[in-house]
Amino acid sequence: MVFSIMTLFPDLVRTVLGESIIGRAQRSGAITVNEYNIRDYSEDKHHRVDDTPYGGGKGMLMAAPPIFNCYSAIMEKAEGTVRTVFMSPRGKIFTQEDAVRLAGYDNLIILCGHYEGVDQRISDEIIDEEISIGDYILTGGEIPACILVDAVSRIVDGVLSSPECHETESFSDGLLEYPQYTRPYEFHGLTVPDVLISGNHEKIAAWRKEASLRETKKRRPDLLV
Q: Using one digit for the tens of pLDDT, what is the confidence trace for 143-197?
């Protein structure tokens, strides 16, 4: 799967996604992450990418031409299915279901906004959907884009050691994950539930299902509505 990120700060994206599992996935070829500096596609001699909004108002707005030029360059090389996403506070809140859905595309193009946003004509012209990672405001779309890439990548074949690694995690089945334990058996007077050392896999599976439901009711009852 190929991720193409349109950004004003490619080094930020490269640094975050170059580490840990996602970094290894890039090096192994399981995924490809390309960062595109929108300034490189500006036709202005000073490489400006923003201007004052029509009608007045505070701040600056990212202009349409550099973004469109960047998008066009990406599309010239894209093969297979493509989905273009704009990381925006007015978008749909991102969920695990969205991650699974987006992992079905061959190419995911992600636009990172800045300043007061982007010219609406870019959203009208090239954006398939707008996505938000939560009801709060950040300084730019790079960190949300990295979160999106991380969540989607984990579902791509070859990124994790086994599909079970993501299929049994929180939100994958609509519930929070069950509590987990490792050695030592006793820690500060607390012990591991005996069922987990019983060797009875049927009972362990039943305990984990019940524990997931209990944790969800306690911490995120909204998921059970």
A: 999 999 999 999 999 999 866 554 555 676 889 999 999 999 999 999 999 999 9
> Do 148 and 110 touch, CB atoms closer than 8 A?
yes
Q: Which residues, 6 or more positions from 135, have their beta carbon under 8 angstroms from its beta carbon? A: 89, 93
Kindly state the DSSP code that residue 172 receives in the 8-state scheme: T
The full set of domains in the chain, from first to last, is 2-153 (3.40.1280.10), 171-224 (1.10.1270.20)
Token pair of 185, please?
A: 């058996």
- Cα(168)–Cα(176) distance, integer angstroms: 9
Tokens coding 59: 């701040």
Dump pLDDT digits (tens) for 202-224.
Answer: 999 999 999 999 999 999 999 99
- Phi then psi for residue 125, to 5 deg, are -90, -45
Are residues 49 and 38 in contact, defined by beta-carbon separation less than 8 angstroms?
A: yes
Q: Write the CA distances from 204 to 165, 178, 181, 190, integer angstroms.
A: 17, 11, 13, 19
Structure tokens at 125: 């012209």
65 upstream amide cis, omega within 30 of 0? no
The per-residue pLDDT of the chain, averaged, comes to 95
**What is 15-35 written as a DSSP string?**
HHHTSHHHHHHHHHTS-EEEE
Confirm whether pTM is higher than 0.85.
Answer: yes
DSSP 4: E
The percent of residues in the chain predicted with pLDDT above 90, rounded, is: 91
